[in-house]
């Protein structure tokens, strides 16, 4: 059966090493480099949230199959710069790769790129600690799994994620890492449906608590997320 865990990306220790040391004593797949230590998928380095880790070889391959055929619900929370229009429902620019002058690769919208589809589920508008700053709290769902998909899609629309310097975001004293959190993960790997919702980790919770919602709907969205703290 699959096991669900958290990947915070902030401890500095490789996740594979942690899985092998803490979970691998009685689960051989979690000590097997050839099977990615049971880890079925990945999160970006600074992204927190839910990860699927197979606790058996059967669970590992069954969960992999669900990702391959896109039967996994993947929900995210992000905070981006500016006021993203609340009527936007889909971000669908095809994505390719581009090499920056500093030698770093990044995803980039281009007509010849691979199909990428991000659903915008809710948008809240907030003011930063300095009133002139505008931010959008965005709940999203991935329908494809391109590298840096959410980061690239929002940056393409002129709304890079907070603290995401690779895609044009600005770091601040109140948000020290990319504000992107995998809040929900749902799948069925053969033993029945699993639906996991994970609240914001402490650092992102504190960052969100610094902001002021600009309207009733934005206040309701922010309040719900603050109530779901890890």
From TrEMBL:
Annotated ranges, domain Pseudouridine synthase RsuA/RluA-like: 35-155
InterPro entries reported for this sequence: PsdUridine_synth_cat_dom_sf, PsdUridine_synth_RluA-like_CS, PsdUridine_synth_RsuA/RluA, RluA_PseudoU_synthase
GO molecular function: pseudouridine synthase activity; RNA binding
Organism domain of life: Eukaryota
Gene3D superfamilies: Pseudouridine synthase
Keyword S-adenosyl-L-methionine appears in the UniProt entry: no
Membrane-spanning residues: none
Keyword annotations: Isomerase
Entry keyword GTP-binding: no
PROSITE patterns referenced in this protein's UniProt entry, alphabetically: PSI_RLU
Record-level GO BP terms: enzyme-directed rRNA pseudouridine synthesis
Recorded family membership: Belongs to the pseudouridine synthase RluA family.
Protein name per its UniProtKB record: Pseudouridine synthase RsuA/RluA-like domain-containing protein
Source organism (scientific name): Pyrodinium bahamense
